[in-house]
Amino acid sequence: MLLLEVLRFGHRDWYSGEICKEDRPSDNNNSAAKQPSVSFVDDYFKAPLLHRVAWGCSMKLIVIHILGIYSLVFLGHVSWSTLAFQFVYLVLSGLSVTAGAHRLWTHRSYKARTPFRTFLMLCNTIAAQNDIYEWCRDHRVHHKFSDTNADPHNIDRGLFFSHIGWLMIKKHPDVYKYGSRIDCSDLIGDPVVRFNMRYYGWLVLLFSFGLPTLLPHFLFGDAVLPLFMLCFLRLTLSFNFTWSVNSFAHHVGDRPFDRNMKPSEVLWVSVVAAGEGWHNYHHTFPHDYNCSELGWHINWTTMLIDLMASIGQVTERRTISKAAIMRQKLRNGDGTRLPRRIREMSEKERLQLADTIQNAA
Q1: In this structure, is residue 265 part of a structural domain?
Q2: For the whole model, what pTM was predicted?
Q3: CA 130 → CA 98, 191, 264, distances in Å?
Q4: pLDDT at residue 23 in the model
Q5: Which domain, by its residues, includes 196?
Q6: What is the rounded (10 degree) CA torsion for 20, 21, 25, 29?
Q7: Which of 16, 35, 111, 183 is geometrically suited to a Cys-Cys bond with 316, CB 3.0 to 4.6 A?
């Protein structure tokens, strides 16, 4: 248990409470969910900041980032083969989060057979971003109560908080209040997820530290110390690539599908986060396995899912019709993803066009 706690991030209280059927994640836009507007516990923000800090997690994150930066001095002490190996390892860790914890287990946007699910689960421990159950639970709460006090990484509390600060401070009481109602029974019923939960600490030690240290040592002859230090560089990059979706993709960028929500479209976030930066689309249509209307365009995760589908490891990919996407852009978007002639229309004309498309569908 001690090992498990050392390798986890975030305040350690678990959400508990009765799961209500009406609070299950919805296929609809998250804005349709009942949104909490005020805190149930006003004393949370009145308490001194030092009393709200999750000191254990904060120290772990600080140490990892310091070692990650320091590990740059070891880049010249390993072979090009090792650097290529570490790059592939970084990509696998990212794809396991995006294709696995996010699109498969959180949103159920496609189905995967046991071999691919097991592969994603093992690679997910390379990323070391908490076990699959905990990652998915937090993300479901984020979608249902996005950008409120019940959102674990609420952007309204600042860019730093939504990026990394939410892991360094105790969760807001609203996160527990509303998070306890999120249905995660499907995760508990998945034997692959249960295995990940039970052996998470040992799996992280093996796949995030053991293999990337020992395999290049025996395959390419590099020294153990530089290889071990590069694990912290990989984690530092992987963490910040994922967190950029929570922070920058809720802060800057276009909103072509819903101009009234915070999530936005940020190209560079899609580059580093394997296609997760098309975030305005994703929050509008959370159960589309593409997480974008652009298909493979800067979307390495969709490429992987489609590749696995071609060999029979992925089935039942959920998508949104082009007509539904266009209606959404016409009714609620900021116009940035519309043809010029449509952008020049009045709002009334756009709504009429949206109605015409709906009637023709």
Answers
A1: no
A2: 0.84
A3: 14, 17, 25
A4: 31
A5: 2-252
A6: -110
A7: 111
